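Researcher: Re-running this chain for the archive, since the previous output was lost when a drive failed. Same request as before.
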Amino acid sequence: MTNKTTAAEVTGASAATVSSGMNRGLTLLFAVAGGAAVGNLYWAQPLLNEMAGSLHISPGSAGLLVTLTQIGYAIGAFFVMPLGDRLNRRRLIPTIMLASAFALAASAAAPSFGILLVALALVGVTTVAGQLLVALAGDLARDDQRGRVVGTVVSGILMGILASRTISGLVADAFGWRAIYMAAAVLTVVLATVLARVLPAIPSRASVGYAELLASVVTTVRRHRSVQVSLVLSAIAMTVFTLFWTALTFLLSAAPFDYSVTRIGLVGLVGLAGALTAQRAGRLHDRGWSVPGTGAGLLLALAAVVLSGTGADAGSIIIVLIAVLLLDISIPTVNVLNQSRLMHVEPQSRSRLNTAFVTGNFIGATIGSVLAAALWQAGGWTMVMTGAAALLTIALIVWAVGRRALSVA
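Model: Regenerated C-alpha cells:
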C-alpha cells in the first residue's frame, strides 16, 4: 500500500467509526432538517398563478420558476454534494443551510421576476443540504442500524416533499405567496443553528483536488457493478413516480372526476402514508433482505399501476386512491433500499455515491415529466399507465439479471 491519497482513499479514521451510532433524537433532527431543506424545492408549484399575477407575468413564464429551481438542484447535486467527502460537514451543512435561508429570504423580497428566478435557482443549489445529511447519517450510523437510520432520514425528506405543496397553498391563501418563503427562511436558520451545535465532531478527511473529486463520482460508479444496477433501478423508479404524479393531475382535473386544484392537492396527502414506510424499508436492509425487498417493491409498484388503470376506467376514486397509496409505499421502498445499499459500498465515498444517486433520480424525474405529457396526449391515462408498466417490467428484468451483483453490496 502506498502513502499517496486518491479520491477513493481516506487517511485516518473513517467517519463511519466516529460514533457508536445515531440516537433517536439526532436521527429525528436529520429527518426534519432534510425534509425542510428538500421541501424548499416545491413551495412554488401550487402558487404559480398567484406569483404570475403578483409579478405581472404569464403563467407560462411563471413555470420557469419551478424549472430553474430544479436545475439549481441538479447543479448543486453534482458540484456541491461531493464536497461532503472532502470538507468538514459539521461546518459545511450549516453553512449551506444558512446560504439557503438567504436565498429563501431573497425570494420572499424579490421585486422582479428576474431576481426571483436567480434567488430560486440558488434555493435549488442549496437544497442539497438535505442529501448531505443522508450521507452523514450513513457515516454516523452503526452497520446494524444504517438501513433504519437512512430510511428515517429519507422518510423525512419524502414527507417534506409531499407536505410542502399543501402547506404552501394554505399559507399563501392566508398571507400571500411571499410569506411561505420568509417562513421557510426563518425555519432554515433555526435548523442550521441547531445542527451547528449538535452535530458530532467528525475526523477530517484527506485533501483531494476539486476536479479529481468530481471526476471520481464517475470512477466510483464504474468501479462497482452493484452501484450501477442500483442507480438504474432508482432512476427507473423515479421516472415512474414522476410520470404517475404528473399525469394524475391531468386525470383528476378531467371528467369524470373534475376535481379542483385544492382537491387534487389533498389527494397528495395520501402519499404521506407511503413516506412513513421508508423507515420500515430501511429495516429490511438491516436484516439482509435488501435485494428481495427491492424486487417486491417493484412488483408492488407494477400492481399499483395496473390497479390505477382499472380504477380510472371504472371512474372510481377509491380504487385510484388505493393505487396512489400502494405506489407511494413501493417506490420509496425501492429507493430507500437502493440508497441504503450505496451507503455500504464505499464508506469514504458516500457523498459522491449519493451525488450519483440524486443525479440519476433527477434525470429519471425529468424523463417522467416529459413522458407524462406525451403519453397523455397520445392515449390518456391508459397510455400513461401502459408506459409505466413497461418501465417497471424493464426494472424487474434489470433487478433479476443484477441480483447477484446487488447481493454483494
